[in-house]
Fold these 4 entries.
Entry 1:
Amino acid sequence: MNQIVATYDLSKRYGKAYRVKDVNLTVKEGEIYGFLGPNGAGKSTTLKMILGLTRLTEGKVTVFGKELESNRRSILNQTGSLIESPSYYGHLTGIENMRVIQKLRDVPDKNVEEVLKIVRLEKQKDKKVGQYSLGMKQRLGIAMALLSFPKLLVLDEPTNGLDPAGISEIRELIKSLPQRYEITVLISSHLLSEIEQMATSVGIIDHGRMMFQGSMEDLKSKNRPTIMIKTQNNKQAQKMLLQKGFSSMQEGEFLVFENMTDEQVAGVNKILVSANIDVLRIEEHKKNLESIFMDITGRERSL
Amino acid sequence: MMKAVSLELYKLRHKRLFLMVILFLTVEIIWTFMAVSVSISRNSDYARWEFVIAILSSMNGLFFPILAAICVSRICDMEHKGNTWKLLLTVSVRHSMLYVAKYISASIIMLGVCIMQGIAIIAFGMVNEFGQPVPFMLLIRFLAGTVLTNMTIIGLQQWVAMAVKNQAFAVSLGMAGGFIGLAADLLPGAVRRFFVWSYYTGLSPVTQNYANEKVQLIVEDVNALLPAMVGLIVAGIAIFLAGNIHVSRQEI
């Protein structure tokens, strides 16, 4: 698959502090790339640099295989975007807002009709955008981004402020874009559940640094179950099991074992019972994606 | 460029900017013509084109800086309000191009105002049956001075309106400019030339001179105004370029 977006040691410094540091992000053709991170992690800054809205301090960005700095116009002609809050002219109607972008993009009228239908705004197109709800403004922003049916769509937290029905609607729309229109999507969010449900690849950023990048399957494969055993004498049990080749960690009242087969669990149980150590509980714990995210970012906020 | 300018004018829909401009101009013209009519009724010697032009130049010093500030603010503010800078820049519009398009749009509106003012002067002279024929050359010179001053002030206003989101700054600058424009003639010439708002009267082809409690109207020679014109053009270009470069370098 071709690389649509690639960043090389991308960094952005404000004053002495780096907002983004050495980010290497790769988005391949036809993917929905979920760019995940807590608030203030550097997602928007990275996306702004990819779109040329913010100057890079260090590093390089290529889009469609071309360097951004020298090919910005041709790249942006094939890119649609919605960055942070939706942009609109509140005193103009929905259709007039679309016409502004239509004139700039030089696309036919049928595109306007089609995208308004896709985001289900065709009935509200004659209403002033200032009177739209946040969800409608967000949908209008997506319609503007989609207007030229670009090869790449960059969406920065597009479901911010939407109600659950709106979120699900936008999610289904985004999921359909690669197949229906061959659009590669780069979408950022601080909501893991949102990315989990639509992304095929994922990048996790925290404190301006890329902590993980890979397919959603790779991320989920970190979801290995652990076996937790509670005994009457954990210290003695741990010592004894270590001698038999089973290493564990003490977590609260439990001994935690990783990568154990069913047979090994049965074997551990047998060893403990034979040594007259009462086994009070054996539990299997599966990490959900949320715990994996917290493990990666090392913090428990914004989720 | 034409596309960018027409788009700027398209974006002004529903803003009622043109209505506001016409109302503002109407107030200025009515005020001026009433003042001129009162003078004519007291002394019929004032029934001259030169007098109308001289009074209107002074009134422009008060009204036009404010009008230019409002026009420019309305044109720039819609981008701040709707957060549309990033939208436009991501559809590959260049910052500097947008700046130029907005400048031209504001200049076109203010040019329309100047032309309407010229037509109003001719109509007023005809209704009051001024003895002399319509002095087209004088009117063109009046128009040129006003347009030139407007364009410099628009450049200054646009810089502030684009760089500072809060449009109260830009409008306050316009109001301060209106005050300076009105009172500039009271300042010494060496000081006056540093205030762009003073050029409505500074470049007027007719100046007023008070002697023996009488107003003398002096038609200035074109050559006498040329250095001031050139100076204003240079200042205007410098202000425009500085504003464009500064605003284009601002990060979104």
Note: Chain B is about 75% helix and 5% strand.
Entry 2:
Amino acid sequence: MKTIEEVHAVVSKLLKEAGRVIVGQEEALKQFVIALLTDSHAIIEGYPGLAKTLSIKTLASLMDLKFSRIQGTPDLMPSDITGTYILEDKNGKREFRFQNGPVFANVVLFDEVNRAVPRTQSAILEAMQERQVTVGNNTFKLDQPFFVLATQNPIEQEGVMPLPEAQSDRFLFKIKIIYPSFAEEVEIINRFTETEYNPELRPIIKKEHIFEMQQLVRKVPIANDIKKYAVDIVTATRNKKELIEYGASPRASIGLVLAGKAHALLSGRKYVSKEDINAVALPVLRHRIILSFEAERNNLSEDEIIKKLLR
Amino acid sequence: MKNIEKALTELRRSLIVSKLFNITIDALVVFLIFFLVFILMSISWFYTFIPTVIYLAFFTRKKLKSIKYLEVEKKVPLLQEKLRTAADNVDKDNEIVNQLHNEVIREMKLIRMSMFLDPFKNTMKIGFIGVLAFAIVLSASLNVMLFDFDVLIKDIGGRFGGDVFVSDLNITFEGGNENIYGEESIIDYGSEELNLGLNTMQGELDFERKKEAENLNFHGRYITQEDLKAISDSSYIEKKLAKDEEEIVKRYFNQITR
């Protein structure tokens, strides 16, 4: 996969195929693909029953990637994620063998990450950052590509442990799954109530294509003015003290430009436009800023404030 | 040098030329405005070069510094953000950048030099230049002068230098026969100023167009020794006036000093 046209065609086909299973949510699906193409991770926030898990599972099948799911609970231990040594009886000899945890997959869905204790949350940090897990004295490399999607439920706040800022900063995107429109909801009913809807999904993209696309993303050129525009937005989050208590880090600037490149590639453009930066600004920044009391008092959301910073 | 580099250099050169053209037109307008003002103030027109050169130096630097591809992108929307990206990544070499460079080179053919020369503005400027030129010729031929800047300066200087009386000054004669100005003995310095107007558009004196000298009041005027001098026109010294014309001049001066 060497040209933008090829990538554009393949991703369009991928999203179209995903549409056979998922009704609506085109924007969210596109953001999943962007996060994957930038070799990053994403937090998903949405109310229950909005096909978060189904979307991820569908994309993983279409990309021929190994999928695993971890359910966040307060008693979830780090070893439940990374894996652990088990004692095995082999030819009369007992020896320890490492049993891979669910993190040994290409697409890991960490459902309700904010229900897990911080110790368990941070267990996945090494995996996300270093693409490896260390158990005891041994380090195990994870299979590539490695893509973590952590979901959060925005309504049930009792007994949850929100991700620390340092940890949420490591996710490129915070993708919001919104309610479907009326027509989409009617279509959902049609699909899933009349017959057992289970369309056969054939992989459209192979692993090596994903690597090629990831390399291609970094090659998309960007004008200095657009880079400065991205940095302007991020620094503005730090300077708008009346609305934002803590602004985004330079990691947000990197994420904004990188995601902008992927967005340009998916749009079939050979360069990053201001439009691309604006399109990815909300998911890149919304989990990286902490609103001031003034903003909360005025009932302003992160998205509303970020929109004010965009030109 | 890559093709994109050549194309961008060519584009930059065209932009510079268009900017210089606009600056030259503007400088000409500035020159003519000052020319007219200086003529009306009786200041030597050579001084017009000072504001013109200052204008040229300041705006040439400013306009040339302001040359940006964004200006081209505004005129050719198809190149929006593309041109700047291609220019900023001219040193990079990968399949996407190369594709972009080729695309930009193709679309650069849509750029026309005329896009940077605003026809309405330039027509207005050229029209204004015509009006100014006409006003200059008219004011010079009619000898229109709002006030004499030299006199104003001397008046200001005189206020600080104290009163000078005309009778205390001696007339000096330069470059010619003083007989032509009449009898010195009959010159009577009075309190009236003799104002002789010469048409600056004509190189030679036209004796046919003589008129009565106006009497101006010296009151409130401050004059210096330099004000009282008579200089023969070179044509008189070199060509020798005819006897009858010499008589006319003598008679003229005799009459005005009567």
Note: Chain B touches chain A at residues 70, 80-82, 84-89, 92, 94-97, 99-100, 103 (CB under 8 Å).
Entry 3:
Amino acid sequence: MGDFWGGVRAAAGFAALFSALLASPLHAESDISGVWWATSYSPKILVLGGGDPPLNAAGKAQYAKNQMGLKVGTLVDKPRKVCVPDGVPRVLETPYPFEIFQVPKGQVTMIHELNHQLRVIPLDKPLRKYEELAAFANYNGYSVGHWEGDTLIVQSNGFNDDSFLDSTGLPHSDQMVTTERIRRIGGQIEDVITIHDPQMYSRDWQARFVYNQRNDIRIEDYSCNDSTHRDISQVKGVNEARQARAQGRLFR
Amino acid sequence: MRGRCALCLLAGLMCSIGAVAVAADAPKANNAIPPLMQEPGVAWRAYLFGGRTRPPGPAEIPYDRTANEYSPPLSGIGPITADPAHPFYNNAVAADLGVSSTYRVADLNNEAGRNLMPWAQEALKKQNALVLANKNGETRQARCWETGVPDIHEAPWEMYFIQTPKEVVMILGGPGQQVRRVYLNVPHSKNPKPSWFGESVGHYEGGDTLVVDTIGLSDRTFVDGYRTPHTTQLHVVEHFRITNDGKTLDVSFTAEDPGTFYKPWGARRPRDRVVAPYEEDVCQLNNDDIFNQGFDPVPTADHPDF
């Protein structure tokens, strides 16, 4: 009998230990640190599952207005003109590399080569309310993250409405909330982002970005007033995008 | 009995894994790495400026004067300083004194001024003349340009560090954040392409200091807020030393450039440990030269590159 209860206690102790190990950050987190570089680039964001972004009536009107403004030059694409941050998810679409850091503990930092944009993502903190952030809204928003198994979940809000979702002028409102699921798949990471913005879209929709690990390169200094930058012509889609822009096909 | 032993074995194995896991997760008791990076939100900020907790007044002047100026080195030739005939009052000092702020006019007659080769003296004379004509007084940093090294130390904003075994990343907060990287325990490349922040390599010394050696700096930057120019031969060695029981980061550097300075010179830039989580602050917006003061344009692309 004593043996039986001893066995139960040992089993219970083992179960508790096993649970604790599974729950420990070392086991929950995946190593996504290092330099990453997009596998492809598209000036128009590609909706996961195909089709067009589900713009509602207000979104369609704003998109048409943005496209016309960008086409005739009354609207400035500030990230490409004066180096302001791209905003989310456009920052995920750039054909330049970026680096992810998982230190200090409790924070994930993404530093992009393009305009040395920063995303500082505190872990295990609550997403702040829109009302708290409205007066301090910014381009890349306010992000918080947590790990679910091997996937980093990043939620962001507090965006200003001075950015586009892509290079064609796809709009968003300042009440957009994004949720990214970032996970490592071998030598790549994927970032699947969900756009929640009822003011501009009739439903939530997703896009997926995939990056190759490139720890063989160093992130370079970049400023938009440089005359030369890193050669990005080998990133699939860049040359086509440059042609489309040069031929005036980027905006309808 | 056999079942219990199997459980014990399994539990022992898991305990061992747990012990390894804990050991890997625990902070390394390695005194050779100064904790420039600490918990999230910890940064190193120059004196008081922007974080003043007391009312302005004469008592603050000694501190506020250092807000965006280099401090003199412990020995040797120091940095360019203000012409005594045209004192530099940054915003904080101007508030202390109850006067208008001024732009920087370089003293070219002191030791640091005489250390400049003729072309650099001439460049600063032209710059002084512009400032005295109320033109082009803003620093490159204030115009949102990459400052390079050592001018990144001029700005008082928070400096955040990320330390990995292979590199140290410095992030300067404030309007228009700047990022530079230091690669640890590797030699310089043979001919690094000149860039805004050059090529920095570094190592730790004495348990409390990061030493950084930088070459390959673009001559599009200046070495200070006076717009002292330099060539691509500029070579900067910085020491980042944690002092004062961990409360202060004492940054000192020496700069040599056989194309610009007769002798190496140096400066110091102490920063205080603060808790100030990073926040995006975009320099380029609402930063137009509305009074036509001949400021540098904010960085602007001729055309989008993709």
Note: Chain B is about 20% helix and 20% strand.
Entry 4:
Amino acid sequence: MNHKNNILYMFIILFILPLKLLVAESLFLIGNGNMLVGINPEGNISFVNWQGIGGSNQMGSRNSSEGQSIKEKLLLEPTAFFLKTQDAIYSLTDNTTSEIKGEYINPEIPLIKLEGTKVGGNIEWEEEVFVHPYRDVIFIHFAIKEDFQPYSIDQLISYQNISPSPPPIPESPFLKPIENIRNDFCSFWDITHHALVHFRPYALGRGDIQRFEQLKDTLAINPKFWRKFEEGAYIGVSSLNPIEGSAILDYPPSNIILSEIVTRTFPQEPYIFGDTCSTLILKPIHNAESQQGITIFYAFAKNYSELEELVDWITTQNYEKVKEELINYWQTRWDETNGNIKEDFAHNWLLLSLSSDPSTGAILPNLKEANCNNKLSLKDSFILVQDMNEMNMLDLSKKLIFFWNNVGKQRKQLAKLTFPLQLYPDGISATPDYWADISQTTFFISMIYVQSNFLSFAEKKEFLNEVWDVLAWSIDNLCIWKVPGELIPAPSYESVLNRDIQSASLVIRTLIGVQSGIQLAKMIYKSVPELWDERNREIQTWIRLAILNKTALEIFPDDDFNYWKKFFPDNNPIWQLPVKYNGNIILLKDIAKH
Amino acid sequence: MKITVKKLIKTLFIFILLTIIFVCLILIFKSRQSFNGYILEEATLTVYFSDFPSFWKTEEEQKLASSISKYLFEYLYGIELSFRKSFGIRPTPLRWRIWAGKPLVISWNDSGNYLISFKPSILFRLFIAPKRKNREFNLADGNLSGGKLYYRWQNNELLISNSETLLSHFIPFSTKPLNVSKNVNYIEFGRKNKLTMFINAEKDNHIEGEITINGSKKHTLTPPLDLIGTNHSFALSYTPFIELLSDESMQKTFQALFPKNMMQPLHIWLDTFKNTSVEKIYLKMKDERLLKDSVLIYLGTSKKYSNPIPLVGIWFPYEDSDLKSLLSKHNLELPYYSCHWASYEGYLIPIWNDAICLSMVYYKDGWLICSQESLMAELLASLSQTNSQDTPNMSIHFTQLSEDIEKLLLWCARLELLNGTNERDINNLFSPWKQLMKEMGTFYLYTHYSEDKEEMTFSFNGDLINEP
């Protein structure tokens, strides 16, 4: 890539990529590789993916069991409320009555600082949110300036709407409203650790329910009891400040009942099932800096013992020290990487690092949605690889390619012909095998192809030798995916139709895949298998015949259309191919106009 | 002194004997009194026994009943216990006869509310019903089980309902069959379409009945496929059974009588096909009335995939053997490929790779469609080429069906879709039902047009047969 192009790409990357790929405008991302948290512009948590960056949402927006949307303001948490009197409660983070500004303290540090002023300017507050670099804990720190007369703060209430849900369901993309039928969990006040504990044991059974029922008959909860549920999702909510009181409500609170909450005591019995909201009433520490600060933390653990350990550890920590530790950690990481990547891309590097699974190399794309998609596909990865290469993040893109290479190895061993349509970042297939889209294979081949263009001959040879096994397997599969006796590829799964179809997109992608494979072989002076050459000729023949006979297949142009334009020069006959698009038959070259 | 005591004992003995004779006479006299029976005004399901204790006793001697009591003992014990708690009597046929008489009628409406009507014996009136403060029953109207049940006396018959309001919305059961054998149970179901049925306990629960469908044309009743040799869970001729079930009152009654959580796994499974090509094709076929007079064959679910993929075959009559014209006539834009299975030429329509690949063969003046290519091969090999005289319109292989249900339940539990029920629970809960279904054998139902009837009425008969 020459320097002129570099400038152009820099422009694209600086202004387009952040919008397209990892939008910081709608959601702030924080995390530590094992946890990915989306924070909305008001500073409330939008989603938490745990365990792992692709873990299912453990808290945040969801629908009530009746299927009706709960009032958005009350869902987002932790929402700090300022309680003036028993019957007047103001939300500090309500964007309808507050002016809130938020940003990362540094492009490469995942620490968000928000400032807000209540309408009328009488309350000014600051909020800092981050995830501990080594431990699965979200820290939220509020500071309220003292010059907000005539009000005086007596108490702060923090709301949690926590719905621990089970891990993603492998190969079951059909069951979309899963939260409506998987809402069983339990909440209780842990007297030993002064924390609200929300948890669900995985595969909840009748025996578990019986245990809960027995427990309800006792006055206090025996901590040993919870150790019986070793596998599950445990979320402990506590504060570094004193906690005065709390309540667990079966339904999301509304302003009418807020005043009642403060009179409630901590629940001693577990609450089972339903849409449970919980509150903590927190007492801010008065200090000399004319600010009243309050720190809430959310600790995530796989079992009760781990949670105990985590909560015990946190309570011994000093907030400022933990913050410093975070800043040092990320600053060091960036400094180590800084040599290869330009400063302009520091924030993109951070977002990509947060969205990367360190154990597998998978990177989650499209995190702009509040309920972010925790799956990745070959197509998304291919687009991401191109963008990352342009930013010189070759290490990250290589890791992503090796992630798919490992998936390919497993598929080969299982005698499968296609890659899964979607995967969770831990490598588990998110779609069933029978949604077999052979054209996705082309994205794998193309990823390797575009990556190779950034490498020297020696690096190229080493890299291609490493992935050659899976690469050859995938090109072979593209070649054998055809109807016997016909030139055209056999029907393949198309997401738009949710069924198998022979489409122009399939033909074009197959051609790109096979031709890329041939070129890759030639690059490192490997002999090109006859099967690949023959299939290349067959598809080109089919294209010529289709142009002559005006045979038009349906086309579903996708995000990779721009790559087609790069791959096939303008004078390539493929652009004369007639295709069916939105009910009309047009030439492929005219698709861009549409 | 001794003589006086002896005399006293003798007199007492004679008195007791006379009392017993007197009571027996009363019982015999009372039992001859007619039984009206009352049902709910809006009844959608009515079950009538001319002699309930006798039916019960005979049923107990049947193999099915012994299997039920063997495997579902806990459930039966629960029912028995709750009966004892409510009425103070351990339910047995003899006791029922002594206290509650012979005839019994139970009716349900489409909300699942019910009315039980029977004629208690004189003993019931003498020993249970007298107005006493410490008794739940009395000769006036009232409630039982702490307000869960309500009762009312009507012409010496006792009506019990779970709804107090419904105790004033009942009618005499005028359509009850006369001269029905004492070991036969009569069932009426539906409002718009109607099913009437007799179950004979003496003949291994042999079923006979009629289906009346409103506003429909005649259908082909002889199934064109002989499925005896096929290894299916159930098979069903589309008509008249599907039309029967199109009656909204029946659907509502089904929904009311089956607890929601019992049907939840089925709903979850069906949801997996929502907005898929599979559903679209099915709805198209249904809307275009292609399924009229069709045959549905359900062969279970495939073990190959993570989701339960159904193995289904459908045959429907169609004049045109040209697939292209069939698809274009019904606006089905689906790519297809030629294929053959032994001597049969057919087509493949790929939907989801090898999981759902519609395989089509023009067979016996209609189209036979299978959900998988391999299934078509299997089905064509096992379908008998010559129709046997008595091809059933419906057959249910309970052993195989139990496997399918278990698979579905375990799938739901594994995905944690049944709140508070995991795989271990399912194994424990479903195990007795599975054992029972395994011993039930196969149910066959045969349908014929009733003779000399102008309206669309079918008669049917069916049996449970234990095949080796």
Note: Confidence is low (pLDDT under 50) at residues 130-134 of chain B.
